[in-house]
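Recall the central idea of this unit: under ordinary conditions, the amino acid sequence of a chain determines the structure it adopts. In this exercise we apply that idea directly, starting from the sequence alone.
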Amino acid sequence: VAYLTLSGNDIFSSQISYQNPQCVTFGAYAVVFDLDGYNFTLLTQDAVVYSKPTINQIKAVNVSSSGITAVITNSQESYGEVLLFDLNGVAISQWSSYNSGYPIACAFNDDSTLLAVSTLNTNGALVVPYIRQFSLTKVDKGIEVADRAIYSTEDNVVFSSLFYVGDKLYCFTADSIYQVTDEEIKQINFDFAVVGRVVKVKNNLFITYSDGVSQMNKLAVINDSNTVLYSSSIGSDINAVCTNGSLYAISVNKRVFVYNA
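Accordingly, the structure predicted from this sequence is:
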């Protein structure tokens, strides 16, 4: 794992040996984890903060602006678990899903006071998606985690990724966007037939999508008022996307596009 300048100079690097390494970032922090493995590492741009093993297989990870790390794992006793670790690598919470189904994805809000977890209950004739919301409160002994709210919809969907934009929570499926606000979850009417990669930059969401399978990729930018600020075709093959501050870069075919949020 290496942090590089735009000119390619190595600021910091560390050897991490994972079978299926994945990386998530938020602000000054990055987490590298072994998908379907048993280890994860929290880093800044100049140091390894800590590395931790897990008892169960890691299915997803996210990190907050304050360095709190959420790790979703499978479990032999429940549908899955969400583990929270503070900046020192100390476990501060463990939530086991017994009634809400399999945990799929999670997201922190900007000030690390809320955590949302999407789950999918398959224990019936129809799959039922849930959004579980937890509050994170600083107390003398550290951070207190508590249930805050639960949301669901009758739609037969899977919320595969979540993003907080301000006080609104956006929930993405393969072909639609939902929003949690005013104590309800509802679908937003956007013309995104196939949703690809979603990245939050400042208070905007950059969304790659297409009008169908094997169709030209497009890029849309929406704000927290659900206004489409930008939409344009970008090419057929997306190689990678990245962000830095207010900038969003996407590599498509043999070109790189850079946008300012």
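Residues 63 and 69 are 4 Å apart (CA to CA).
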